[in-house]
Amino acid sequence: MHRFDLPDNLPVPVDDGQCAHLKVGMKFPIDILTSLPVTNKHSVDITSYPRTVIYFYPRTGKPDQKLPDGWDEIPGARGCTPESCGFRDHFQELQSLGANVYGCSTQTTDYQQEVVERLHLPFDILSDSDLKLVNHLHLPYFTLPELENIPLIKRLTIIMKDDTIEHVFYPIFPTDKHAQEVIDWLKQNPIK
């Protein structure tokens, strides 16, 4: 199976309520967001587009590394590369709908740089390796002993207008169709 393909028998994540506190109208901590390391070595700019889409994901692997043991059995864990490719493939349409896109994981910027280059991502990935957003927003995560129990953010997407949350997608499944799901929401909720 190609790394970009998703197995047919992946467990479907259920809404466990861990994002219920992320309410529409809630202020997003822009000061924390703009302090995160970014793969382009610049800071986040939420002023260049009316909306900002941040998709959070557990981790990306590298082609020469095997998946962690049991990865496919964790609901919502598998699919970071297909999700990123979906946002890449729909990037221009997302921008035409007034949204800039960022990915975010707890991996280091150096690690993330590999996936940006390998997948030719036209957007930046943010590193929350210091867990600033995870802790401030109480984002859901899981850990694996095989990965040194580093918190891995459960897959979710936040859409913001300026510094205010407009929508939260959680849980997300299937990951390879999520960018289209975001596009559909943007089309149904045009900027006023």
Describe the structure.
With about 190 residues, the chain is α/β, with parallel strands linked by helices. It has a single domain, classed as 3-Layer(aba) Sandwich (Glutaredoxin), CATH 3.40.30. It contains six helices and seven strands; from the N terminus they run αβααβαβαββββα. It has helices spanning about 30-35, 80-90, 90-95, 110-120, 130-135, 180-190, and strands at about 50-55, 100-105, 125, 140, 150-155, 155-160, 165-170. Strands 3-2-1-6-7 form a five-stranded mixed beta sheet. Strands 4-5 form a two-stranded antiparallel ribbon. Strand 2, helix 4 and strand 3 form a beta-alpha-beta unit. The longest helix is centred in the middle third of the chain and has 11 residues, at about 110-120. The relative contact order is 0.25. The model has no long low-confidence stretch (mean pLDDT about 95).
Question: Strand fraction band?
Answer: 15-25%
Q: Cα-atom Rg, whole angstroms?
A: 15 Å
One letter per element, helices H and strands E, the order comes to HEHHEHEHEEEEH
**How are the strands of the biggest sheet laid out side by side?**
3-2-1-6-7
Helical amount: 25-40%
- Structural class by helix and strand composition: alpha/beta
Mean pLDDT across all residues, rounded?
Answer: 93
Brief account:
Helix content is 25%, strand content 17%. It is an alpha/beta fold. Strand 2 (99-105), helix 4 (109-119) and strand 3 (124-127) form a beta-alpha-beta unit.
Secondary-structure map:
Blueprint: H1 30-33, E1 51-56, H2 80-89, H3 91-96, E2 99-105, H4 109-119, E3 124-127, H5 132-137, E4 141-142, E5 152-153, E6 156-161, E7 164-169, H6 178-188
Domain Redoxin: 23-181
GO biological process, one term: cell redox homeostasis
GO molecular function, one term: thioredoxin peroxidase activity
